[in-house]
């Protein structure tokens, strides 16, 4: 969907924010702060502000994909990270496994995650099942 922008307002916003190709960590942090400032305004953002924010997001994503490439992590490690990020414990996901013992073995990396378990975990964490396979 294309939204009509007020060209003067958009131009003035571009002059003040001055988005550009991000070349180092400090420029990336600055862009992230600008994005956060836009996001904090929520629904009050104008179409022009939303457009500049989207541009900044694209620039940050490009920089981070080039400089912070993630190596593939084992599914058990991904599961542990998701638990930690949400301040959850094994007991919070034990019902997604056939037993407490299976949950312990999966989290310890001693047992692989089945496709059905991956689907349940994906639904629980709102992520792709591919993360766990």
In terms of DSSP E residues, the strand content is under 5%
Mean pLDDT: 92
Domain module count: 2
Using the CA coordinates, give the radius of gyration.
21 Å
| SSE topology string | HHHHHH
Shape designation: elongated
Number of H/I helices:
6
Q: In percent, how helical is the residue content? A: 55-70%
Segments where pLDDT lies below 50 for 5+ residues?
none
How many β-strands, per DSSP? Answer: 0
Secondary structural class: mainly alpha
Note the main sheet: none
- Measure the end-to-end span: 35 Å
Describe the structure in brief:
The protein is mostly helical and 133 residues long. It folds into 2 domains: 7-67; 75-132, Orthogonal Bundle (434 Repressor (Amino-terminal Domain)). It contains 6 helices and no strands.
Entry keywords:
mainly alpha, 434 Repressor (Amino-terminal Domain), elongated
Overall description:
The chain is mainly alpha-helical and 133 residues long. The protein has two domains: 7-67; 75-132, 434 Repressor (Amino-terminal Domain) (Orthogonal Bundle). It is 58% helix and 0% strand. The chain has six helices and no strands. The protein has helices spanning 7-17, 25-39, 47-67, 75-85, 100-107, 115-125. Helix 1 (7-17) runs parallel beside helix 3 and helix 2 runs antiparallel to helix 3. It starts with 6 loop residues before the first helix and ends in an 8-residue tail after the last helix.
Question: What layout of secondary structure does this protein have?
Answer:
Layout (H helix, E strand, L loop, with lengths): L6 H11 L7 H15 L7 H21 L7 H11 L14 H8 L7 H11 L8
Helix pairs in contact: 1-3, 2-3
